[in-house]
Amino acid sequence: MKSRLKKLKFQQYRFTKIGVLIGLILVAIAHIFDVDYFEYFYEFLEKYESLEIDEILMLIFFVFPALWLDSLLGNYKINLQKKQMEVFCSTMFNVNHTINNLLNQLQHFYYILSEDASLTEEEIAAFYKVIKEADDDIKKLNLVENIPENLSRGIVDVRLG
Question: pLDDT of the chain along its 161 residues, tens only?
């Protein structure tokens, strides 16, 4: 049963739980003390009808929840954009690191060739390995669809797959 509750992720609905608890308390009070909330509310509105409070309350009941939902949606979009920027910056840093590593190895390869030094089979294989690793890393970075868990800015060794 505990794992099923974990799957439902009730911990995300903190305000819903508070609202349900308050609602249950109000229902219990209404039944125990025979309180009719709508009668009190109606009497309140009748008392202040001349001030047009009922129209203002209707406006408040519709505007404030809409503003609250818009702010939640706005915060969600801002957080999503921040995460996308983190992924973009980390990806660009990793691409930069991979290409710089490849260019350094190719520069070293060029200096060896310009000195007319012969390369052994192992050295040539090592250069091909570096080129292949750079190619694989760039292909993996192109396949990024979600945010890796070990993402942080400035990290050199994010392994994506």
Answer: 455 555 555 566 677 788 888 889 988 998 999 888 888 888 888 887 777 777 777 778 778 888 888 888 888 889 988 888 887 887 788 778 878 877 887 777 777 776 767 777 887 788 788 778 877 877 777 676 665 555 544 444 444 44
Segments of 26-161 assigned E as strands:
none
CA distance 117 to 120: 10
Element (H, E) at 137: helix 121-142
The two tokens of residue 149 are 């868990």
User: Nearest Cα to 152, choosing from 59, 89, 80?
Assistant: 89
Q: Are 156 and 94 in contact (CB under 8 A)?
A: yes
C-alpha separations of 16 from 23, 30, 63, 107, 145 in Å:
10, 21, 20, 61, 32
What is the helix (H) or strand (E) element at residue 3, kind and residue range?
Answer: helix 2-8
Tell me the whole-structure pTM to 2 decimals.
0.44
CA atoms of 89 and 33, how far apart (whole Å):
61
Cα of 150 vs its chain's centroid, Å:
14
Of 84, 102, 87, residue with least CA distance to 138: 102
